[in-house]
């Protein structure tokens, strides 16, 4: 037996360890060169680790959620098994799926069989030997399963999904008012663990204060609609976000203390001329903050195009380390779910974050008369060690002035 140990690679300057967030293979699986073996998490992004060799997996170097040092053994592969017919063991038993919610179970109980998708071709399904063995043990016809891998290959996760659909289809409908005593322990791993660590550290080290100001965006929304009507076929669709970024860019030169990063260990505040705006983005694995670089050099359409690209990359897990670092000020928004006010947490080591709340139409006194206006709150948090309350209020008022008179956004 000739074995090859694959170690955790050096993924960038300053990265001493990574978190193991997912295994793509199990002991006994055969792998080919460049096949993804595992996903690991650095302090900013998820990275796929490919295999430099072909062979059979002998042993895994850690459990999901475990921290592994750079250079530690990740996986061991029998390279002598390359090209051989390998007898693989059944995949490790999966934990039973959680009991479905009553509404889901009631709807599923009427189905006679789990829903399936038609395979992309009538040929032999692509699957690793371990997956085929497990499917045979469970009595699953692989022809009835659509593989989720890029090449249509069927994974263990696809078998799990099929089993869950079958379980739901066969589950009886529970009593409507039955007591529930089930509970589920969910390990906090991967991106969610990183978010928890960063949020805890930010709240512990930074004395936050939040300033809330309402903004009349009636004229801004009218202008935005007209611009989209005129330019949508030629330029990016404008949302509120790129216009807000432009208002922030116009305010920053008057308030350099806001567009800054504070190193509390050295006591140094670095003010930045460049405005690198972090765009808080919700993804399936948690909140990520891709960075719109040099917003000061972009018009609203350029910002809209780049924001859309960054958000799509973050949600698809393709954002690079560089795209997720280096912001000087962050914007966060929950869109239509934004509530009337919030207390956003600063994205350290920045010193400010601008939170956008939802737009609502309500009666407002204007020029001595009641008028229907579209109103929105800005909820912004600041690091009180380096930003005083008056400075923060003046900054937000400057942003407000540009939003309430949107012609200023396009004035040189």
UniProtKB/TrEMBL annotation:
GO terms for cellular component: cytoplasm. Pfam families: 2-oxoacid_dh, Biotin_lipoyl, E3_binding. Gene3D superfamilies: 2.40.50.100, Chloramphenicol acetyltransferase-like domain, E3-binding domain. Its EC number is 2.3.1.-. One of its GO terms (molecular function) is lipoic acid binding. It is an enzyme of class 2 (transferase). Keywords: Acyltransferase, Lipoyl, Transferase. Residues 126-163 form the Peripheral subunit-binding (PSBD) domain. Signal peptide: none annotated. SUPFAM superfamilies: CoA-dependent acyltransferases (SSF52777), Peripheral subunit-binding domain of 2-oxo acid dehydrogenase complex (SSF47005), Single hybrid motif (SSF51230). Its cofactor is (R)-lipoate. Residues 3-78 form the Lipoyl-binding domain. Belongs to the 2-oxoacid dehydrogenase family. Forms a 24-polypeptide structural core with octahedral symmetry. This is Dihydrolipoamide acetyltransferase component of pyruvate dehydrogenase complex.
């Amino acid at each position: 037996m000739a074995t090859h140990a694959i170690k955790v690679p050096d993924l960038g300057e300053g990265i001493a360890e990574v978190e193991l967030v997912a295994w793509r293979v199990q002991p006994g699986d055969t792998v080919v060169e460049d096949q993804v073996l595992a996903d690991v998490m650095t302090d900013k992004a998820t990275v796929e680790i490919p295999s430099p060799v072909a062979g059979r997996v002998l042993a895994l170097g850690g459990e999901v959620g475990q921290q592994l040092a750079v250079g530690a053994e990740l996986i061991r592969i029998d390279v002598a098994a390359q090209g051989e017919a390998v007898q693989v063991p059944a995949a490790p038993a999966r934990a039973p799926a959680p009991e479905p919610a009553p509404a889901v179970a009631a709807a599923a109980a009427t189905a006679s069989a789990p829903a399936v998708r038609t395979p992309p071709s009538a040929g032999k399904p692509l699957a690793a030997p371990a997956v085929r063995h497990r499917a045979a043990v469970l009595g699953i016809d692989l022809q009835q399963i659509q593989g989720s891998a890029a090449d249509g290959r069927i994974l263990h996760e696809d078998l799990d999904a099929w089993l869950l659909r079958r379980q739901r289809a066969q589950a009886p409908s529970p009593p409507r008012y039955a007591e529930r005593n089930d509970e589920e322990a969910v390990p906090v791993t991967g991106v969610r663990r990183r978010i928890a660590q960063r949020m805890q550290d930010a709240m512990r080290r930074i004395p936050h204060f939040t300033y809330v100001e309402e903004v009349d965006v009636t004229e801004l929304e009218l202008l935005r609609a007209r611009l989209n009507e005129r330019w949508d076929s030629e330029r990016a669709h404008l949302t509120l976000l790129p216009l807000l970024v432009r208002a922030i860019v116009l305010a920053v030169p008057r308030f350099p203390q806001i567009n800054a990063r504070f190193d509390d260990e050295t006591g140094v505040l670095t003010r930045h001329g460049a405005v690198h705006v972090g765009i808080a983005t919700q993804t399936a694995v948690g909140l990520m903050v891709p960075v719109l670089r040099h917003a000061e050099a972009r018009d609203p359409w350029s910002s809209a195009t780049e924001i859309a690209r960054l958000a799509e990359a973050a949600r698809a897990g393709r954002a690079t380390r560089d795209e997720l670092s280096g912001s000087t000020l962050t914007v966060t928004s929950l869109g239509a779910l934004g509530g009337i006010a919030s207390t956003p947490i600063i994205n350290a080591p920045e010193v400010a974050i601008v939170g956008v709340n939802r737009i609502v139409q309500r009666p407002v006194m204007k020029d001595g008369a009641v008028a229907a206006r579209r109103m929105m709150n800005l909820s912004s948090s600041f690091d009180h060690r380096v930003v005083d309350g008056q400075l923060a209020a003046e900054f937000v008022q400057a942003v407000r002035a540009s939003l309430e008179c949107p012609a200023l956004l396009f004035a040189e």
